[in-house]
Write a structure and sequence with these properties.
Blueprint (H helix, E strand, L loop, with lengths): L11 H4 L5 E5 L17 E5 L3 E2 L11 H14 L5 E6 L2 E6 L1 H10 L3 E6 L4 H14 L5 H13 L5 H8 L3 H9 L5 H9 L4 H7 L5 H14 L3 H14 L13 H4 L3 H14 L3 E5 L4 E5 L4 H14 L2
Parallel strand pairs: 1-2, 3-5, 4-6
Antiparallel strand pairs: 2-6, 4-5, 7-8
Helix pairs in contact: 2-3, 4-5, 5-7, 6-7, 9-11
């Protein structure tokens, strides 16, 4: 799968494809002072048992079948792209390349090519997230958790996250919003039983039981996102009896809303994650966006700001 553009230098600067290969194993005891490591930007062969997984790895699920396929490739061709590691008190910790490390263990390799970097905890976590996003290895919930950790654990603003990953603030916000879903529905999204777009469609339903009911219908009936939007709007209307369906005087132009306007409403609804209504005629009209909390209002304001940058 092609690498997505827009992620800046990212790991291209870290992998150092032209780095010379040191044809010897690097023992964990050969520590250098920070900033003076002779192995900086050099590929060293490190004992695979001296490497442990990244504690900040956002990816939680590894497909065993695909790992087996990669293991077979490694048996035939070796590990072509070096792992990125950092020194730790017990040896080395992975920064990027856990899938290759796991597959190399399966293939029986004793050593693996690595580039040793002097990363702190924050850099370690960010590189792990970037690598997985570049390779599209994260499911939507893993990605959301990684993005949330950048803002909450490491103090990034959403603007900084956006600049670091080459994604819009709206993308970042919509991704993190998935974590508002009940854990069971998050698992549906994580496993691919329903898409992230389906998940965003039902987030604003205030009743968790109704969210679960719609999620089950999505899976059982293979509902499209558009069908889910209609169902979600119907449920939200049913849960707002206090509105008592105000009888508006609807103009003939509104009654005969064109298919084009309806399509624009649906597109905006998908982009903004809330109900959108366009009323009026060719000379004047209005676009209404619904929100149900201060947090939701702030999210919509951010999305609109991004759109006009």
């Amino acid at each position: 799968m092609a690498k997505k553009a827009g992620l800046g230098r990212g790991l291209d600067a870290l992998f150092a494809d032209a780095a010379p290969v040191e044809e010897k194993q690097a023992p964990p005891s050969s520590k250098k002072e920070a900033g003076t490591s002779e192995s900086e930007d050099r590929v060293l062969y490190i004992d695979i048992n001296d490497i442990r997984p990244n504690s900040a790895q956002p990816r939680k699920n590894f497909d065993e079948v695909k790992l087996g396929e990669l293991s077979s490739s490694i048996k035939a061709n070796g590990v072509i792209q070096p792992l990125i590691v950092r020194e730790s008190s017990t040896g080395y910790e992975l920064v990027a390349g856990e899938r290759r490390w796991r597959a190399a263990r399966m293939s029986g390799l004793r050593t693996v090519p690595c580039i040793v970097r002097n990363f702190d905890d924050k850099q370690n976590a960010i590189v792990a997230i970037i690598e997985n996003m570049q390779r599209e290895d994260l499911d939507p919930i893993e990605e959301a958790l990684g993005l949330k950790s950048m803002t909450e654990k490491y103090g990034f603003t959403q603007e900084q996250v956006s600049a670091s990953l080459g994604r819009s603030r709206t993308y970042i916000t919509n991704s993190i919003r998935l974590l508002k879903l009940p854990e069971e529905i998050q698992q549906y999204v994580s496993s691919g039983q329903m898409s992230a777009a389906h998940g965003r469609t039902i987030i604003n339903i205030p009743d968790k039981a109704k969210q679960k009911e719609i999620a089950d219908k999505i899976i059982r009936n293979d509902l499209s996102v558009r069908a889910t939007e209609r169902l979600a709007e119907k449920v939200k209307d049913e849960l707002r009896p206090e509105r008592k369906k105000r009888k508006k005087k609807v103009s003939e132009a509104d009654k005969e809303k064109t298919a084009e306007i309806a399509a624009v409403e649906r597109e905006l609804m998908t982009l903004l994650g809330t109900k959108v209504q366009i009323t009026g005629d060719e000379s004047k009209g209005k676009i209404e966006l619904e929100y149900y909390s201060l947090d939701e209002l702030n999210r919509l304001i951010d999305a609109l700001r991004d759109a006009f940058k």
